[in-house]
Amino acid sequence: MTSQKNLWILTEERPKDSVLQTIIGRFLQDYRIGFFANPLRIIPLIKDGKFTFSYQILGIDSSNIGNIYVKTVSGSSSFVDFLVYFQECEPVPTDTPLYAIEETKTDDSESRNTGVYQRCTKFVYIDYFYSNVKKIMLYDLQITQKAKATQTNIFGSRLLATCGIEVLGKVQTDEQGQAFDSIDELIQYKNSMRKPPKGNVPIDITRYADRIEISGRLVKSGGLSHDPNIGALTIIAKALRVLGWEKDIVITQHGLAQSMLTTRNKFIHIANRLNIKLQGLNIPKNVEHLDYWRYEAKGEKLATIFIHLVVESFTKGYSIFENHAGCEKSYFKNSSGGVVPLAKYSDRDAYKAGDKSKIVHIPDLILVDVERSEIINIEGKTYANRFNGIAELFNYDFIEETYIKPQYPKYSIKRTVVVYGSNETEIAEIEVSFMLNKKGKMVLGIQAPQLFHQAISNLLDYWTQRKPSIY
Fold it and tell me: What's CA 471's distance to the chain center, in Å?
């Protein structure tokens, strides 16, 4: 009997029902696979009482798919949020994925640049590992989309189309989906756009016989870290190459110094690939990563994502904020169901004036236990850094007083640490309520919230009654 292919979704992010639904639906549509659908559930796979570091997605029933799995990975540099494979065995980096998907919740209404440019670097970088992968920018909007797209968004969307990147999850005009036909059209469109306020460096494009110059500031906080502009200049350069420009592309007015250029920076990787030059500087030759990704085996988010998903799958509890390490920060969910972004500073002016105590410290995860009327603020850390996590618990006064208590006045609040790592099987510190060790053993602390006990107990009961479909 021939084994069935499984659908594999590899991600650095915390998998969300809405995003998985869209990804799986797109796959089923593209490959014309019939299915029956129920609400999705993300279930940690347990074997011999231990977590296997894999999740199974339930809710899609099809005779053409074996199982649907999610695994946590980390990228070597500029990694997209999701890679999707359809094959029998667990993917390895040399396997070619069907889709490379970048997800964002940001719209024009929040940030013109971040909403379209900031993630473009990832699509350019992946081409050098998987040239034939289908690339998708997925908008998982949690706020109302801006009625009229800005010029920045239109230009950025057209660059994506020029580079063969599809936009999914938001309404687009015909103009936004139209690729540029020529280098001159691209340049003319960009240079006709409204200029930024005086004092800012505009992104202008000038064509010469032997080069194209693009102005754009790349320095931020004393280094090469201006993400929106890195993305903008990267996707412009890529589009120019796609349209046939083979001569030099030179970035001007970048504000960088030679000492700021390191071989580990994502822009330097792209510059080497696209043969981009920085005016007045020498771009170092970077050492290429052999693999685009690896399975995550070290990070704290292995534990925080696990406790997040097991609570939402096996209790009535749910998250109202998440900021898992290396993942996109969510909005804060009000008691009414509305969402708001958290402030970065308790006093922005004082912070900018040098008072660094005004930065807002936020948990990695905030859970609501509706049955016990308790809010749980969670700091995630590796086992080796657990004492740093315990110290961080003292910094949550602002978020509790400003956001949590006004919205959930009848709820008590608990602060706790969740850790990943080590081969330990017991927790000594009372502030640590849950540990996922390297072997997948799930350990509850002495003062672990009842929500955690309930979630783990229900998870183990679930697999006691069913045989896990371990690949």
Answer: 26
Which H or E run includes 267?
Answer: helix 266-274
Residue that the structure tokens 């948990």 belong to: 363
CB atoms within 10 A of CB 450: 12
Rounded CA separation 319/81 (Å) = 20
* Count of positions (residues) in the chain: 471
Q: What is the pLDDT of residue 322?
A: 97
Continuous H helices in 31-140: 112-116, 120-126
Look at residue 202 in the predicted model and tell me its pLDDT: 93
CA 430 to chain CA mean position, Å = 32
pLDDT tens track for 393-413: 999 999 999 999 999 999 999
CB within 8 Å of 156: residues ≥ 6 apart: 116, 117, 120, 232, 235
The ranges of the chain with pLDDT < 50 are 1, 108-114
Q: Residue 34: phi, psi to the nearest 5?
A: -75, 150
DSSP string, 307-373: HHHHHHHHSS-EEEEE--TTS---PEEPTTS-EEPPPSBSSHHHHHTT-GGGBPP--SEEEEETTTT
- Whether the pTM exceeds 0.85: the reply is yes
Structure-token match 């096996």, residue found: 314
Question: What are residue 212's DSSP bridge partners?
Answer: 207, 249
